[in-house]
Design a protein that fits this description.
About 50% of the residues lie in helices and about 5% in strands. It is mainly alpha-helical. It has two domains: about 5-70, 434 Repressor (Amino-terminal Domain), CATH 1.10.260.40; about 75-370, no CATH class. The relative contact order is 0.12.
């Protein structure tokens, strides 16, 4: 904490969320980048003048009081897993982490009003392909999903296990997904991805990071490949897949799409799984990939499963003022956000106030509906 209670980390958090550099912010509030840097690192002996703090609040979209509270649960770089393109700049990743930290604060406030599921994702450190396959099967058994049936709602599985799924991240088209395991465990999915089967695989991939990589820095080719293999094994268990795909060495596309409808994963993922398990040989796999590219299915496959919205975060927000005493406006004020910042962070506009009621957020389905 800096002089007179000013918290420099809050300034950095708000600045990164808005996608500004220290130079950008300094230009907007008539302050030098050096001063901004000193304030963010709590190196300034004197408290920042009131007019400067008010300028920060106006430019960044938070109340002045926002800068005088500690960050209880910062999303640190080493805790975060990014599924991104290689060209994704560090600035974008910093912005996503800042957005995630702010959403974590929203979730913490919501948890005072709603009973969210407890975190229940097993940590299974493994090495090698066989270990990953076993970890995926262990997770299915841990969540009573069996080894012979498709997962009909991947998001519901994870949300029942205490992982909140958020779809509205900052404008980061170069990041497909992001996850963090910690006090608040979240998975972000990019709202620009239209493929529902790809969303299911991205959820499986991030689940793989949560299961396999506790305390391990991710982002390398090795950890990404491990998370991909976990997602394949979790969504398409080996014995059931071998039985249903059959032993033919050739690709039958009608059969592949029949499997896609049943297992709710992409045709590309089915072909890759067949190759990984040695059901098809490298030549057949390469021809299949060539055919997928020719048909432009890598830009959007036909026969996509029905899209399934996450069921915790947005329903909880929309219940404020109707199912609980706290209203969305009160939540916004308690966080020291401006109305505009609240909408930008949560993706929800603040409605008119409504009446209160029960405070338990109910799922629409039971375990057997997975």
């Amino acid at each position: 904490m800096g002089a007179n209670g000013f918290v420099g980390e809050r300034l950095q958090l708000a600045r990164e969320f808005k996608g500004l550099t220290q130079t950008d912010l300094g230009g907007k509030v008539a302050a030098s980048p050096t001063l901004i840097s000193l304030l963010e690192r709590n190196k300034k002996v004197e408290a920042p003048p009131t007019d400067l703090v008010l300028a920060f609040a106006e430019v960044l979209g938070f109340h002045a009081s926002f800068f005088y509270e500690r960050i209880d649960d910062p999303f640190k770089e080493e805790e975060c897993n990014f599924r991104h393109r290689r060209t994704a700049p560090e600035k974008i990743k910093s912005r996503v982490r800042a957005h995630a930290t702010l959403l974590g604060e929203v979730v913490a406030k919501l948890a005072t009003q709603f009973k969210f599921p407890d975190f229940n994702v097993p940590a299974i450190p493994v090495s090698g392909v066989e270990g990953i396959e076993e970890a995926a099967e262990a997770c299915r058994q841990h969540w009573s999903l069996g080894l012979d049936s498709p997962i009909m709602h991947m998001g519901r599985v994870l949300e029942h296990a205490g992982v909140l799924i958020i779809t509205g991240i900052v404008d980061a088209k170069k990041i497909d997904a992001f996850s963090r395991k910690g006090k608040t465990t979240l998975i972000f999915l990019n709202q620009y991805i239209q493929s529902s089967s790809r969303w299911a695989f991205d959820l499986g991939h991030e689940c793989g990071h949560l299961v396999l990589h506790t305390g391990i820095q991710t982002g390398s080719k090795a950890t990404e490949a491990e998370a991909d293999r976990f997602a394949s094994a979790f969504l398409l268990p080996e014995r059931a897949f071998r039985r249903e795909f059959g032993m033919s060495r050739r690709i039958s596309w009608p059969h592949v799409f029949e499997l896609k409808r049943r297992w709710r994963v992409s045709a590309a993922a089915i072909v890759r799984r067949a190759y990984d398990l040695g059901v098809i040989d490298p030549s057949a796999y390469r021809h299949a990939c060539q055919y997928i590219s020719l048909k432009k299915w890598n830009q959007g496959e036909p026969q996509e499963p029905h899209f399934q919205e996450p069921e915790l975060f947005i329903p909880a927000l929309l219940s404020l003022g109707t199912s609980v005493n706290m209203t969305m406006r009160e939540l916004c004020e308690g966080l020291h956000f401006s109305v505009e910042a609240f909408t930008e962070v949560t993706g929800q506009s603040i409605p008119k106030e409504a009446v209160s009621g029960s405070s338990i957020l109910q799922f629409r389905a039971r375990r057997h509906d997975f």
